[in-house]
Amino acid sequence: MENPLPSPARPAPPAPPPPEAVAPLMRALAVLRALTAAGGRAAVSDLVRATGLPRATVDRLLSTLGRLGYVRAEGRDAVLAPALLELGNAYLAATGLPDRLGPLADRLADALDESVSLAVPDGDGLRFVHQATRRRAVSLAFRIGDLLPAERGAPGALFAADWAPADWQRWRARRAADPADAGFPAVPPRRPADAAPAGGRRLAADFTARVAAARTAGWSLDDQLIEPGLIAVAMPVRDPAGRTVCAVSVVSHTSRHPAAALPDAVLPRLRATVLAMERALTAPAPAVVADDGRPAAWRRASKRQLGPGFVESVARGLAVLTAFGTGRAALTLSAVAEAAGLPRATARRALITLEHLGYTTGDGGRFRLAPRVLELGFARLSGLTLPDLARPHLTALAERVGESASLAVLTADGADAQPAVQYVIGVLAARIMRVTISPGSRAPAHATAAGRVLLAASPTAGRTARPEHRTAPGPAGRPFLLDRVRADGHALVDDELEPGLRSVAVPVHDGDGRAVAALGVSTHAGDRSPAATRAAVLPALREAAAAVEADLRVAGRYLPVALP
Ligand code: PHB
Questions:
Q1: What phi and psi values does residue 164 have, to the nearest 5 degrees?
Q2: What is the pLDDT of residues 301-343, one digit of tens each?
Q3: Is 334 within a domain?
Q4: Hey, whose CA ends up nearest to atom 5 of ligand 1?
Q5: What is the CATH number of the domain that holds 109?
Q6: Nearest CA to ligand 1 atom 7
Q7: Structural domains counted in the chain
Q8: Which of 12, 454, 531, 544 could form a disulfide with 397 if both were Cys (CB 3.0 to 4.6 A apart)?
Q9: Does residue 498 lie in a domain region?
């Protein structure tokens, strides 16, 4: 039967890949996009359907991406994993925008007590690269990496002020092909009336008018373009050459300001911030931060180990993305090849592939990362908390040592309260005689192994704590004990909370070297000596802590990682 509905306009089919393009790299990126579109988790069979690739191909690509730490298998599902954030981090570090302008945006948010964000132009859309969020009445909070249609955010009208006729044509084609904004999962879909042709014409006229107004005024207002109540004012930030590199938005709600009053309320401070940002962009280029990517030897070893389960051309192509970073914004082909540990010809083909897909741009012999790199799972992974990051490593640890594992943080309620540890995850050993640790439970810090490693790392907590527990060393003994814990890098505690209980714990450090949590293994002492327990548990415990720390470094580079 014929479909009675008119068929929607289709976007122009994507250009065919150039002959030099690396097919496996394109397929691996398609798998990452499909996994992102599925919300970060998908059954392998669904990825096969979404990508149209053979099952064996998807399996090999997932195995390769797994080796890189970008995805993880959980039962029959593939799940995006935190190390994938390193691709978006490479883009953010290369632009230097969050590093240079982020602190100024945060200060503006404090001064106005409103949310402030930074967005960059990305095709006919805008993509967030920094968020200082203070959301109250507003339901929607965008994440770093989220993409909005240009016509639905205050920065979009500023960016469109620089569009060439071809850009407008692309915008109109996209609007016609996707009137409900289905291609932008970060925004609520348009109401049917707005998505209908008449609504679309009204919307186009409105956007053109806002672009013209923004060009004249130098700022732009979003009066509830995204959802009822949400309003924003944005100004462009220009580099010394006069190009708009990003826009700063102050975001509020009609319950705090009528939309018409928002510009007057925020523009003076917003203007001052933009001036400070433009000054910050004239500062000398930041020092190059050495790339700690995986060397060519790592790829060769992975190939030897995994055989067909490691597609080297994928690992090589993705290494091109992490060749960029702080002080490495625009690289020649030779610089890319050297940083990625690749022959020039290989780096060149990877760059051709990545440029075809919109992840890199090249002109005048220099290559750059494009904001689209953030579409590879960045927004999806950006809400991860420390327990989220730690859980898979704790599960693996508990399985490996056959004992219960836990993650704990230090808490203190009130100025002179006794420091306590709070367990945020407990993973049970798969056996009958096991120690149960309930998430949320607390214990006096000095009486537990986790507490002692955290007190030992804390400049003040350990020294000022009052002892209350029966066998805990008194105030005179504690500094000595904590010095010992600090020197050993772990604590072993026997029998202090409960007879027969023994726990061993090590600290977990964040990217700045602060001990933010403790990772522990709990067991019944039985007749094992403490030395025997250490020998059985510590190596695995240290490896698990190092794995959590690696994830925390990547995830915490541009995003605050919530502790519990
Ligand atoms: C935001 O950062 O959430 C934001 C920015 C600009 C808008 C709306 C929301 O127009």
A1: -90, 165
A2: 999 999 999 999 999 999 999 999 999 999 999 999 999 999 9
A3: yes
A4: 249
A5: 3.30.450.40
A6: 153
A7: 3
A8: 544
A9: yes
pLDDT in tens, 510-547: 999 999 999 999 998 888 899 999 999 999 999 999 99
User: Cα 45 to the chain's mean position, in Å?
Assistant: 26
Same structural domain for residues 135 and 185?
A: yes
Per-residue pLDDT at 268 exceeds 90? yes
How far, in Å, is the centroid of ligand 1 from the Cα of 144?
Answer: 12
377 and 390, same domain (yes or no)? no
**AA identity, residue 172:** R
Task: Please determine, for residue 10, whether its predicted confidence score (pLDDT) is greater than 50.
Answer: no
Q: 232 CB under 6 A from ligand 1?
A: yes
Asked if 361 and 368 count as a contact pair (C-beta separation under 8 A), the reply is yes
What is the C-alpha separation between 188 and 200, in angstroms, rounded? 16
Pocket test for ligand 1, best of 138, 139, 142 (most atoms within 8 A of CB): 142
Instruction: Establish if 5 belongs to a structural domain.
Output: no
> pLDDT tens for residues 23-39?
999 999 999 999 999 99
Residue ending a domain, among 364, 381, 398, is 381
CA–centroid distance, 111 to ligand 1, in Å, is: 18
For 379-395, the three-class secondary structure string (H helix, E strand, C coil) is HHHCCCCHHHHHHHHHH
**pLDDT band at 139; cut points 50, 70, 90:** low
390 and 376, same domain (yes or no):
no
Could you give phi then psi for residue 230, rounded to 5 degrees?
A: -80, 120
* 249 pocket-lining for ligand 1 (C-beta < 6 Å): yes
- Whether residues 152 and 183 share a domain: the answer is yes
Q: Say which residues have a Cβ less than 8 Å from residue 310's Cβ, sequence separation at least 6.
A: 63, 64, 67, 299, 302, 303
Which atom of ligand 1 is closest in space to residue 226's alpha carbon? 8
The CATH number of residue 38's host domain is 1.10.10.10
Beta pairing partners, 236? 247
Query: Helix, strand, coil proportions of the chain in percent (round to 5)?
Result: 45, 20, 35
Cβ of 146 less than 6 Å from ligand 1: no
AA letter at 505: A
Q: Is 210 among the domain residues?
A: yes
Question: Which residue, chain included where needed, has tokens 């810090």?
Answer: 445
Q: At what angle do helices 477-488 and 449-457 cross, to 10 degrees?
A: 90
- Taking the centre of ligand 1 as the mean of its atom positions, its distance from the CA of residue 115, in whole angstroms, is 9
Range of the domain at 496: 386-555
* Residue-wise pLDDT tens digits, 355-368: 999 999 999 999 99
In the reported structure, the alpha carbon of residue 288 is separated from the centroid of ligand 1 by a whole-number distance in angstroms of 32
Tell me, yes or no, whether 414 and 506 share the same domain.
yes
Distances (CA, A) of 79 to 63, 128, 485, 545: 12, 24, 37, 21
> What residue type is 62 in one-letter code?
L
- Which of the listed residues 280, 300, 333 is the one where a domain comes to its end? 280
Spatial distance between the Cα atoms of 264 and 350, rounded to a whole number of angstroms? 49
Residue 343 sits in the same domain as residue 406: no
- CA 217/CA 213 separation, integer angstroms: 6
Residues 236 and 142 in one domain: yes
